[in-house]
Structures are given as C-alpha cells and as structure tokens.
C-alpha cells in the first residue's frame, strides 16, 4: 500500500491533463511499468546435452520470440549463442553439471529472434529434470540505463585494445581465475578461441595442456599444483617455455597487480631463438673451418719441410753413395789381399820365433777383424743410404687389387722368421683375427708390405725388450693382428704387449730420423716412410695409442679404392 501511495503522489494531478492526454499518459505509464517489470523478472531455460527442455514465456519475450513454442522448436541451445561464445558456454555447462558452482553472475550474450545480439546477466544451476540431471539458466536482461548500456561497449573496446597487442596477455584475479585474455594468447598456446572464458580457474588450462601431452609422462595433479604456485610471485619474473603442439618458444613474464591479481605477458621468441641457433651454428662452423685451416697450414708447413728434407736427404745420400761404395769395395778387396798375403807368407811361418809368430798372428787377426767391422758398418751405412733414398723418392710399385689378409699374413711370417733368425731363443704368441669380408683392396703391395714388416719388426723388438727387462718369468710376448671392414674403408690393427710408449714419444714418432732404439739399431726412417706411404700415397690414416709398459697399438685405415699417386708425385703437388 505504501508503494502504491508513493506512486500516486509522484503522478501529476489529473486537472493538468485533458481527457485524451490523460488516457495516453496512462497507457504510456502502464507500458513503461510493464517493460520494467518484464526486465526485472528472470527468464528461465532448461536444457540437457544441448536439447531445450523448458523455456519460460518471459525469456521468449526477452529474446523477441512471439511464443515459447518458437524457442522450443530451435535445433539446440547453441542456436541462441553467438559462435564466438559457444566454446566458453559448453565449458560452463560442463562445469555446472559436475555439481554446485559458485553463484556468480556471468555477463553473456544471446541471439535474438531478429539475429541481433543482446546482453544478459546469467546464473547457472544444476537441476533434476524429469529424473535426469539438466542445466537451468536464469537470464536477466541488463537494465536499460545509460551506465549499463555502456558496459558491453566499453568491454568490447577494452578487448579490442588487448587483442591489438602483439604479445599474448593473460589476466588472473587473486584466486588464479581468468579475468581476461587476448586472441594472441590463445594463438600462441594453440587454444581454440574462447575456450577458457572469464572466471575459469587457470588450473583448467594446465589440465588441458597435460591432457594433450605438453608435460610428458608426469603425474597430472602434482604437476598442475606445482605450476600453479609459479603464478604466485611477489615481483616480476621471467621464464621460457616451448609449446610442444606448435613448437613456439615463449618468453613469459609474470607480474603481480596492486589488487592482488596477476598479469602474464607472452612474447613469441621463436624467430629470435632460431636466429641465435643459426648464429651459434655459424660460429661453430667458422671455428671448425678456422681450426681446419690452421691444421691444414701446419700440414703444409710440415709437408714443405718434408719436401725440403727429402731433397736434402736425396742429395746427401747420392753424395755418400760413391765414397761408401769405395769403402765397401776396398774393404772387401783388402780382405782378399790379406788372405793372399797370408798364403804367400805361410812357408815362412816355420822360420819365425815363437814370440814373433804370436805377434804376427795377433796383427793378422786385428787386421781381419777391422776389415770385417769396416765391411759390416759399410753395409749398414749402405742400408741407411738406401732408406734415405727410398724416403726421398717414395714407392715405385704398381697399384693393383691385392688380397689384404694374404699380404698381412706374408709380412707377419717374414718379420717373425727374420727376428727368430737373429735370436733363436725368441718366441711370441701370434693372434690372427682376419676378417674374411676384407677381400681385395687396391694398393701398392710392395709399399704396404714394407709398412707392415716395419711395424711387425718394431712390435717384436718391443716385446723382446720387455721380456728381457721386466723380470717376470710369467710374461709371454704376444702380438695381435686384426683386419676389419669399416664401410668403404678397411683397417689393420697391430697390438703388442711390449714396453709401450710415452705421449712425448708418440708425438715425435713419425719425425724423420727419430728413434727410441740404441745407437746402431735403428735409422729413424722406418715409421716416417710408413706414414708417408699410408697417409699421403694411399690417402689413409695412421693412428697410434699406447700405455707405457703395458701395450702399443698401431691402426692403419685404408680406402678400398684410391686414385694412384706415388710419393714423388705427391710431393710435387
């Protein structure tokens, strides 16, 4: 009654209207009251799995339909929802059916009968309808006041401004629920547009990421809980994250707001990372090329020195060859003349006194011993000269397909018998591990045989020296020879259990005239010549590994086929 009295007092007196004006004014007031009453009443609509089960007349009128039947005749509830909001509404309906939700009104929009869009305040509630669960929506039209009318427009302007930003933006309230996000955020994370509407807990986005495999095979609840704590920051923090579904790399910056919420910006740094990787790879390639150039420069310097040394060696060898031949020839001739002289003086032996004859015999023995030493050392000097000439000229054999295993076996037998001929007490265990698949290899057999004999001889020398010096009666000299196929290449590996070598010795091993043998036992040219034959003539590789007093291993790697080139030709290039 009080409200009615207040309404009557608010009306102008009837005396101020003419009869016609009074009727029109009454009708206008009645229509205005009807409109306000309808706007204040909530419209109801009930649906299950998209099928509309009930619609109130109030809602039908709010949506511009003439009857409830027209709403009920729609194919499903999605016909009332604009396309850009359907994903958000599906998620809201699904959460509603899972149980009671926080009764907070959502600002949503719906299609009217004339296809225009109208904004409503929405409350969702799960209900039992016909014995089965359903979703009930209560929709209240936004009051037609100037301030309220501007809210959707202002929201659209704000959303348009955020969408225009080049980076992804996500805003969370103090309870880690989504307050807003721009389209770039959804694009960067490969989310369907509108999938996570305002009010969605941020944990829902993390559960979605886990379901699609972003975090790998890890526990879901623990992972999501740990990730949620990362949003609770007191200051600005940065982190990087790669989105597995699209490969984008994001630079994520989380900053707290004064009201307790958070702003998270996402910068797409995929191109920057790609450029950084390309620059790093280019730097690594440049450094590798520089290293290779330095190694090549060093090799060129060594080759130049070797070429100069080869020329010097050839010159010295040629100069020594002739006088050495004279020494050897005259030593042999002097021995023969001495023998003839002794035959001529033999009849006079009986005329010599005992002491004199003893002196003569001593002198003769000394002369013969000296001549034998001259001949022995002359032959040794001749061998050195021949090695020097071989080192300077290189091999001169012909390239041909050769049974490698047979060549290795022949060189091994030759070396072993040669060593035993000099020392009959020497024995060694020979372990042959030949790969039958090696077959024939194109090479210069005389030169490779020279390399193998040299290596076998050195190995036998090493094991014999260890046998004589180690003092272990249980020690057994052993040599393992292995041939193996390695794709387009083949390898020969020679391993002995001898005295081994130090790192300093290995570094100088292929230097001409370097030897670890005592004076008179080695020329220092064998391994240098072997290296030239393997690496330069046959385009192979010569590797050495050793542990002092334990073992030494030489590995020769040769290509199956190679363009023929002699060492002399190699030095001309």
SSE layout:
Elements: H1 2-10, H2 19-40, E1 43-48, E2 51-55, H3 57-62, H4 68-72, H5 86-97, E3 106-111, E4 117-129, E5 132-141, H6 146-163, E6 168-172, E7 178-181, H7 183-188, H8 202-211, H9 220-229, E8 237-242, E9 249-256, E10 262-268, H10 270-345, H11 354-393, E11 400-403, H12 404-422, E12 429-433, E13 440-443, H13 445-469, E14 478-486, E15 489-496, H14 503-507, H15 526-537, E16 541-547, E17 551-559, H16 567-572
Parallel strand pairs: 12-14
Antiparallel strand pairs: 1-2, 1-5, 3-4, 4-5, 6-7, 6-10, 8-9, 9-10, 11-13, 14-15, 15-17, 16-17
List keywords for this structure.
His_kinase_dom, alpha+beta, five-stranded antiparallel beta sheet, histidine kinase, 16 helices, PAS-like_dom_sf, Sig_transdc_His_kin-like_C, 573 residues, EC 2.7.13.3
Strand content: 15-25%
Mean pLDDT: 80
Low-confidence regions: 144-148, 566-573
Number of strands: 17
- Helical fraction equals 40-55%
How far apart, in Å, are the first and last alpha carbons?
120 Å
Sheet with most strands: 5 strands, antiparallel
Q: What is the number of helices?
A: 16
Output the radius of gyration.
51 Å
Overall shape: rod-shaped
Structural class per helix/strand content? alpha+beta
Strand order across the largest sheet = 2-1-5-4-3
């Amino acid at each position: 009654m009080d409200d009615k009295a207040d309404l009557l007092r608010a009306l102008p007196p009837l005396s101020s209207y003419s009869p016609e004006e009074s009727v029109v004014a009454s009708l206008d007031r009645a229509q205005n009251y009807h409109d306000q009453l309808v706007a204040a009443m909530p419209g109801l609509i009930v649906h299950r799995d998209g099928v509309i089960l009930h619609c109130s007349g109030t809602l039908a009128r709010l949506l511009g339909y003439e009857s409830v039947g027209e709403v009920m005749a729609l194919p499903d509830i999605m016909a009332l929802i604009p396309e850009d909001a359907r994903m958000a509404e599906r998620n809201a309906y699904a959460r509603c059916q899972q149980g009671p939700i926080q009764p907070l009104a959502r600002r949503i929009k719906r299609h009217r009968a004339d296809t225009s869009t109208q904004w409503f305040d929405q409350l969702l509630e799960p209900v039992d309808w016909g014995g089965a669960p359903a979703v009930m929506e209560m929709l209240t039209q936004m009051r037609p006041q100037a301030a309220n009318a501007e809210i959707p427009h202002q929201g659209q302007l704000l959303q348009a401004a955020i969408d225009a930003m080049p980076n992804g933006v996500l805003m969370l309230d103090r309870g880690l629920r989504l307050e807003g996000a721009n389209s770039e955020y959804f694009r960067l994370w490969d989310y369907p547009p509108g999938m996570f509407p305002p009010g969605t807990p941020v944990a829902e986005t993390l559960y979605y990421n886990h379901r699609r495999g972003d975090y790998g095979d890890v526990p879901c609840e623990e992972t999501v809980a740990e990730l949620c704590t990362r949003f609770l920051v007191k200051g600005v923090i940065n982190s990087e994250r790669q989105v597995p579904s699209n490969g984008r790399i994001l630079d994520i910056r989380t900053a707290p707001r004064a009201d307790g919420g958070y702003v998270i910006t996402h910068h797409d740094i995929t191109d920057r990372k790609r450029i950084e990787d390309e620059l790093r790879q280019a730097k690594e390639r440049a450094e590798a090329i520089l290293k290779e150039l330095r190694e090549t420069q060093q090799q060129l310097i060594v080759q130049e020195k070797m070429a100069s040394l080869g020329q010097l060696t050839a010159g010295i060898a040629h100069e020594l060859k002739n006088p050495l031949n004279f020494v050897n020839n005259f030593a042999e001739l002097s021995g023969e003349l001495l023998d003839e002289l002794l035959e001529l003086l033999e009849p006079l032996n009986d005329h010599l006194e005992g002491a004199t004859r003893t002196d003569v015999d001593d002198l003769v023995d000394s002369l013969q011993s000296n001549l034998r030493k001259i001949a022995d050392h002359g032959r040794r000097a001749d061998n050195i000269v021949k090695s020097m000439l071989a080192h300077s000229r290189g091999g001169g054999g012909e390239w041909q397909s050769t049974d490698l295993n047979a060549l290795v076996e022949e060189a091994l037998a030759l070396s072993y018998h040669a060593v035993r001929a000099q020392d009959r007490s020497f024995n060694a265990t020979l372990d042959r591990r030949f790969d039958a698949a090696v077959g024939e290899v194109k090479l210069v057999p005389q030169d490779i045989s020279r390399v193998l004999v040299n290596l076998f001889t050195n190995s036998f020398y090493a094991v014999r020296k260890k046998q004589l010096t180690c003092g272990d009666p249980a020690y057994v000299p052993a040599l393992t020879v292995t041939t193996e196929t390695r794709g387009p290449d083949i390898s020969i590996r020679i391993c002995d259990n001898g005295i081994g070598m130090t790192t300093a010795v290995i570094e100088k091993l292929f230097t001409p005239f370097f030897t670890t043998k005592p004076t008179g036992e080695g020329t220092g040219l064998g391994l240098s010549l072997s290296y030239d034959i393997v690496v330069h003539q046959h385009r192979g590789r010569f590797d050495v590994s050793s542990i002092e007093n334990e073992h030494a291993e030489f590995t020769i790697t040769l290509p199956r086929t190679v363009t023929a080139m002699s060492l002399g030709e190699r030095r001309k290039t």
